[in-house]
Amino acid sequence: MADAVATAAGNLVQSEQDVQRAVDFAASVTGVAGAIAIKGEKLAAWGQIKLVPM
């Protein structure tokens, strides 16, 4: 299921303005624990995601 949700969410991202919509979609799927979408300079994240400096 994770691959299907990731593919569908990724397909929603065509521009930087789409990253939140993609994460919202993934969050709406039962069983998904977290999601992140990045496009250009924009990032959206939800759920059990740990962001660490690199």
Task: Label this structure with key terms.
alpha+beta, 54 residues, 2 helices, 37% helix, two-stranded antiparallel sheet, globular, single chain, 22% strand, 2 strands
Model description:
This protein has one domain (2-47). Helix 1 runs antiparallel to helix 2. The chain has a two-stranded antiparallel ribbon with strand order 1-2. The protein has 54 residues and is of the alpha+beta class. It is built from two helices and two strands, in the order H-H-E-E. The radius of gyration is 11 Å and the shape is globular. It starts with a helix and ends in a 7-residue tail after the last strand. Helices cover 37% and strands 22% of the residues. The model has no long low-confidence stretch (mean pLDDT 96). Strand 1 (34-39) and strand 2 form a beta hairpin. It has helices at residues 2-12, 19-27; strands at 34-39, 42-47.
